[in-house]
Automatic annotation (TrEMBL), chains A, B, C, D:
GO terms for biological process: L-methionine salvage; methylation. Binds 1 zinc ion per subunit. Homotetramer. Keywords: Metal-binding, Methyltransferase, Transferase, Zinc. It comes from Mola mola (Ocean sunfish). InterPro entries: BHMT, BHMT-like, HCY_dom, HCY_dom_sf. Pathway: Amino-acid biosynthesis; L-methionine biosynthesis via de novo pathway; L-methionine from L-homocysteine (BhmT route): step 1/1. Signal peptide: none annotated. GO terms for cellular component: cytosol. Its cofactor is Zn(2+). Residues 8-293 form the Hcy-binding domain. Zn(2+) binds at residues 196, 278-279. This is Hcy-binding domain-containing protein. PROSITE patterns: HCY.
Length: 384, 384, 384, 384
């Protein structure tokens, strides 16, 4: 194994103006592969099926990712194994290892700053012991909790990135993206941005607002985006979780590789230099990011040996009309059909308007009882 | 490794009325993971990246598949490696290994029966040497070529399955599904059916027509279906290859797990007992087949440890309105939105009407030249 | 007023190869104007509000219609007034007056041939007294009843046209369109075709099948089509009545004038020479038929003084980007959006499979009772 | 004829809390009937075909409209005839006559306030001579021009209503709806609101913003809305004129009667009491407004003798499954299909960003030349 020290760190890269490609979300990809249970979404596969986790890391690396996020979790016993897997694969290429923390049930249940910070602190031990390259505070719906996380992570001396899962309307307390970003930078974040909950278009738009806020405040930061690989123009402020299709009917919303190239270009044009993904990303989505930005970066990812740019691999297809699709303008202008004429194109999101402090959000200790479910159904039906 | 002999063979299972779950297509799944190039679609990954191929085999096994098709190809040098990988994983569970042959450029170029049969014969050596459990002649658009394949495969003494990639309108020479099936059974096929090119609904409908033909002719056979995981109500007789979205814009057409459960039930009700998939299938699709038929089979696949039936895993979700989705009627009746309001729901397929013997279909030796491409584009544009 | 005698009769025109433009359906157009009640669909407006009926006749005449169908009905006392209105407007231009009969509750309730024929006979008196130019037996779902109608109409010595409201699957007894047409010609019809229930594409396709049947039988006839102005690709054999949108939610299905030009061209190419419309047609739809066929006919309808061909009237629009739409290829290739992203593009038709002789079809004497409605709702809900 | 004086004036009605139902737009309705040319959209039909204009007035009256807007135009010689027609029909029922002025080419071409006001002044003569009941300044994209119009109209001593054709983003100079409304009230308007350019949902939303602005400024006014009968969720600030479907492909966007009832209720709830329509409205749309508000008003319009509420007329339908649709919840929850699976649900509006003062907007004296059109097409194609 090559020692980590020979690689440039995340801030060295960003300071030098390099583009950093992030990886994709693990829980959705591994759910489809059979190793993560939707609902609890816990990462025990890192210990139970390391070969599956290693393989996914490897595919994202091959697709061009420069970051391997450890497949860890706040309550998990298996975080050591997860760190080792991420490091093992990172060392197979030009990638860094990032450890992450995310929003806590403690915060939603209105525990004190001290208690919430203790939760973050507890997760740091393994990251320090395994010497990850940098830290990410991600998937926060309330900027206040994210600030607390950044403050804890900063105590390690490692670079800290912070992403919220919010849209242009701001966090669930109504703090605007620009103000959120200022708070995060002031709390010590080196990189700020958006992850999860919304599609690339929405995320890039929101990061732009963050950037404007930071610049207006006379501060400096790097910017990152890790959006969904699902089209979500119909979301409300809580993102794709409120869509009726979440999480088992999202297929028709999956982005194509061409949608991803558009995303990479727009993110780049918006000044974002850490460009990755979240739920729904498959390795070919990540590869599309790296391919779109190959002219700026000067190289293609390893995985492009199996991918002709803009469909050029079809030049070898048996059928002549498929060969005729081997061109950029064909794919760039395609409006792909859903094959589902009995389905609508947009949905009305559920929206119960509950957030931090609401009794319904207290962490469930056991599976919801039949009576609780009945009450929920009635609420849901009235809501429509 | 457990000796193959301890497992029941494919015909023993089907004769006993058991349901056999097939695996999914490898080229599309591995293309998304970065190991297969769209266009040539060749399986060199079996040698170059065996861990990736092994992992996919394992995921399908875990999802409940009883068959591991070797990731081989008519021209490939690496078929030995592919057979070993399939056997290795099959031995980790209750699965058989199947070797397959498919339609040949030789046939499309109007080579003689002798020449075409020689192509099939050449592929048998490795299957015999590696002692696969049975053989599949699959992905044939002309029943005549499939008959030749069956005749060659039958010489091995192993059970033979034969599937065409046709729809209810019949093969590309206009032979009806019923007549196709009769010809295949008469050529020696033990199992007949449909694979690839069409969605589950169309494939089940076509296999039904095959079954009616076989029964009307006083013959007997087992039936199988290995459809796409894409909705294709708008296809013409040549299937999804003619859709403008093929192969890089098919995302909005991907079936959900609930669509798959519906397919499994309809296939079962139609008398099909070998129920699998083809292009577009991910392991969770295969798992859905095994879960739908768990009552008939008496057991769930290993992968169901990470999947609550009909969304029951959501009972533990933090958000109460997501918990309210933990019920069968919610997912069964869902009409998922595409999130793409600027896209249509159906496409007009390309249809150049060329088939066996047409000059445009001669195997390309080299990438299509710029001049050839220009000619194709003009043809394509006129066609619209 | 010019005497009728100076005009060429319907058969003279068709025998000479002329194109005859039919008018559109009155009940739907007058329902939107406030003079017909949906449900009973009766024509009392001819007596109660003659100015409204006269105005609609006049608009169709101005749009190019060569036929004024009397706004009459089998049970109506006001048929004299209706005939007078039709004649009054017909005499304002080059149009003929046609009296029509359509399917009867008597037939659905399994009355005898004699009883059904008596119903038709009773309606003839006013048509003879008012000396209409020809007769139409239209809107029949069972060819047997249409034959009876034709036999009765033929006794008048006037030319007889006969149209069924069926699609390519044939009449509700399963008689194919080709066989239906042969029966109608043998019963004495001079003109045969399709009206109502399906969109232009389906109707033209069905008339083609009728024409093939007639020609195969060595017979001769003229052909006519009077389709809906609604897109109905998702209908089953009973047509648009089974669509869940019937009759108060059909708006998104309304054809544009460009769709109508396409229809006129396809009907003409199929050998249809009596080209008109039915429910949903507004005068501008009829005008589009006359405009499309102006090159063949050598003249434009009067109403075209207020319509530039292919959007050319927009050359005078204030906004430059609207002026840019003043061209044929713009409108011909338009795929108009619905503005309804929460709606599907196709519906599942209701289909209760009841036809002639079923108790549910007996004519209602009084409004359905609350109990009957409740029973129907339950049936409907189970059906979905 | 009953003397006008016996009727309550517009302000008496609104001051008393009564609901006033407006009529619908004439140019679109008469275009479909063959009497108005799309592009110039001029009202010469009032003189050339008075029976057609009278009939449409009558249908709106019968549908419940309390206002007959004269079918007049700034340059038209035929305004006397138009006033007489409106008065004739108004006197047949409980309706008032309103004369209107709208935005002028003079303003777009940057003529002076004096010149623009002279244009309005010139149109007043006939309204005064014919003694219309009140005046409407409508269809203004720039509030400045609307203020000038109100100032001129106020000199007559008649009540003045003023509507802009803007959405929530404000007028084309970026003045917010709230500020626009304040300016109009300060200029002397008794009634303010929105007409044309957007669908009911957008118009009601915008009038709400106007009302908030007026109330915040401590002023008082009555409110009106006269929206399109087309769904336009995809419009930009210039409204439906920028949609690619304008004006000849709008059919799939037409509102149903149920959509209209929803509009009437929402307008009423928003405090709007003058509730009418604009382009796309047919008499049955207006009737739906009057029917929805019948409980508040205590009576149904005359036209409801031919309309059962919520589909109740279907209780008499022959087919039992159509009888099952005779209920409110069926129609209220319907998501009507377009029957157009090859079309999208939303469009990208053209948006050239030109407004007052731009050379392209100068009034065309003659039809656009072929060269001008060519230049426009090129611009349009580059824009996409």
């Amino acid at each position: 194994m090559a020692p980590t020290g020979t690689k440039k760190g995340i801030l060295e890269r960003l300071d030098a103006g390099e583009i950093v490609i992030g990886d994709g979300g693990f829980v959705f990809a591994l759910e489809k592969r059979g190793y993560v249970k939707a609902g609890p979404w816990t990462p025990e596969a890192a210990a139970e099926h390391p070969e599956a986790v290693r393989q996914l890391h490897r595919e994202f690396l091959r697709a061009g990712a420069n970051v391997m996020q450890t497949f860890t979790f706040y309550g998990a016993q298996i975080n050591e194994a997860a760190c080792d897997l991420a490091r093992e694969v990172a060392n197979e290429g030009d990638a860094l290892v990032a450890g992450g923390v995310s929003q806590t049930p403690a915060y939603l249940s209105c525990k004190s700053e001290q208690e919430v910070k203790a939760t973050f602190q507890k997760q740091l031990d393994v990251f320090l012991q395994k010497d990850v390259d940098f830290l990410i505070a991600e998937y926060f719906e309330h900027v206040e909790e994210a600030e607390w996380a950044v403050q804890v992570l900063k105590t390690t001396g490692k670079p800290v990135a912070a992403t919220l899962c919010i849209g242009p309307e701001g966090d669930l307390n109504g703090v605007s993206p620009g103000d959120c970003a200022v708070k995060l930078v002031q709390a010590g974040a080196d990189i700020v941005g958006i992850n999860c909950h919304f599609d690339p278009e929405t995320c890039v738009k929101t990061v732009k607002m963050m950037k404007e806020g930071v610049e207006k405040a006379g501060l400096k930061a790097h910017y990152m985006s890790q959006p969904l690989a699902y089209h979500t123009p119909d979301c409300n402020c809580q993102g794709f979780i409120d869509l009726p299709e979440f999480p088992f009917g999202l297929e028709p919303r999956i982005l194509s590789r061409w949608d991803m190239q558009k995303y990479a270009r727009e993110a780049y044009n918006a000044g974002i230099r850490y460009i990755g993904g979240c739920c729904g990303f498959e390795p070919y989505h990540t590869r599309a990011l790296a391919e779109e930005l190959a002219p700026e970066r000067g190289f293609l990812p390893a995985g492009s040996e199996k991918h002709g740019s803009w469909g050029s691999g079809l030049e070898m297809h048996t059928k002549p009309w498929v060969r005729a699709r081997a061109r950029r303008d064909y794919w760039e202008n395609m409006k792909p059909a859903s094959g589902r004429p009995f389905c609508p194109s947009l949905s009305n999101p559920d929206s119960w308007g509950v957030t931090k402090g609401h009794a319904d959000l207290m962490q469930q200790k056991e599976a919801t009882s039949q009576e609780q479910l009945k009450a929920l159904f009635e609420k849901a039906n009235k809501g429509q």
